[in-house]
Specification:
Layout lengths: L1 H11 L14 H22 L12 H24 L12 H93 L4 H14 L1 H33 L7 E3 L1 H11 L1 H4 L3 E6 L6 E3 L1 H18 L4 E10 L2 E8 L6 H4 L19 H11 L3 E7 L3 E9 L5
Parallel strand pairs: 2-4
Antiparallel strand pairs: 1-3, 4-5, 5-7, 6-7
Helix pairs in contact: 4-6, 6-7, 7-9, 9-11
Length: about 400
């Protein structure tokens, strides 16, 4: 009996002997108990070591409870893996206080993920805004530099063009005087001797004076027209650059549309006929260089949208304190899936290296800063219409 008592005590202490006492009357029952406890011990040690692949084939309340715990741990492992993969909807409701701690952890992770996503979105937007602002500043700086250059070139051209125009006028007067002299000479020759008259007629034919006197007015007129064209272009450059003006100025929209057309004429002349339908407008308050930049961006886009030869229509009107400018082309049009993005910074349909995607976004910002609106409608294959509305009093 002492040996059996010692055996049972060892079992109570958690020691599982390899065999039951050989002389015990309950040796077979003890052997079954030892086998049962051995399998239970092996199963629980596997779970404690993190091995959830072990199986338990025993029956009974203890085995059932262990099996339930094993199933819960396996499910919890799967849920943890799902959380690690980004599924923060997982919740545990079968492990008491641990369930609350686990669920709280998942909720905290979900909130941290959402906060991080929100911060990343804010940072991406801030970065895009920073890039757009930087590019616009560079564009404005470039336009200011171009404006200063244009103003300098215009000043340098204006002086010699003034001499040329003045001299062409004087030359025209000289031609008229020379023509009058030749007519008088021809009249006197009629009373001269035959030899002298023949000599002068030969000289006039040799010098081709008849053709010269006939062609001179045409040459002078063409030269004066060309000089006047240069003068208009120079004045348009001065108006467009407007580097000598600070802050808001009174702007005649019709004049600035014409100035912009003159500046962009090299890009427009081979692509389109420019048709003007100007209304009688009051002047508006704004920044001349910026308004000119808006018109230039839209006119260039219109020219690029026309494949061969088309029409660009400029229309202005005034109503309820607003000046409306409509620029229409009959080019290729803008696809519906693109038109909602054309005012986004850096968005362009041009191949890489052929456009910054800032022209229309800058135009949108300029019009908005002036308190106005800019809208676009387009039909693929038929053309595009930009409508700009600017307040007469300016927008700030």
């Amino acid at each position: 009996m002492g040996e059996l008592s010692e055996y049972l005590k060892r079992l109570a202490d958690g020691q599982i002997p390899s065999e039951a006492p050989p002389e015990s009357e309950v040796r077979e029952e003890l052997s079954q108990l030892v086998a049962y406890l051995g399998e239970i011990s092996h199963f629980t040690r596997s779970m404690a070591d993190g091995d959830l692949s072990a199986t338990l084939h025993l029956r009974g309340s203890l085995a059932g409870a262990l099996k339930g715990l094993h199933a819960n741990l396996r499910h919890l492992t799967w849920q943890t893996q799902e959380v690690a993969a980004g599924d923060f909807t997982q919740r545990v409701d079968f492990l008491g206080e641990f369930s609350g701690a686990f669920n709280h952890m998942v909720e905290a992770l979900a909130k941290a993920r959402d906060d991080l996503t929100s911060k990343n979105t804010e940072l991406e937007k801030a970065l895009a805004d920073l890039k757009a602002t930087q590019s616009q500043l560079l564009q404005q700086e470039k336009m200011a530099s171009v404006g200063q250059l244009a103003a300098g070139v215009a000043h340098e051209i204006n002086n010699p063009m003034g001499f040329i125009i003045s001299n062409l006028g004087t030359l025209n007067n000289y031609g008229e005087a020379l023509k009058e002299y030749l007519q008088a000479t021809n009249g006197l020759l009629a009373n001269c001797g035959e030899a002298d008259r023949t000599k002068m007629e030969v000289l006039q034919k040799k010098l081709d004076l008849s053709f010269i006197m006939e062609d001179m007015p045409s040459l002078i007129k063409e030269s004066r027209d060309g000089a006047e064209r240069v003068r208009i272009i120079v004045q348009s450059l001065r108006n467009f650059s407007a580097v000598d003006q600070e802050g808001t100025q009174s702007i005649n929209i019709n004049d600035y549309l014409d100035s912009t057309v003159n500046v962009a004429w090299n890009e427009l002349k081979d692509k389109a006929e420019v048709v003007r339908s100007y209304g009688v407008l009051p002047t508006i308050l704004g920044r001349t260089q910026e308004i000119g930049q808006v018109f230039l961006n839209i006119l260039r886009n219109a020219a690029q949208a026309i494949a061969e030869r088309g029409i660009i229509h400029l229309k202005t009107s005034h109503d309820n304190g607003m000046v409306t400018i409509v620029i229409t082309d009959n080019g290729c049009g803008i696809p519906p899936e693109v038109i909602d993005r054309i005012f986004e910074p850096f968005f362009t349909t041009h191949p890489p290296g052929q456009g910054t995607g800032l022209g229309l976004s800058t135009s949108y910002d300029i019009v908005k800063k002036h308190g106005g609106t800019i809208d676009v409608t387009s039909t693929v294959g038929k053309g595009t219409k930009f409508t700009i509305r600017l307040p007469v009093g300016g927008g700030g």
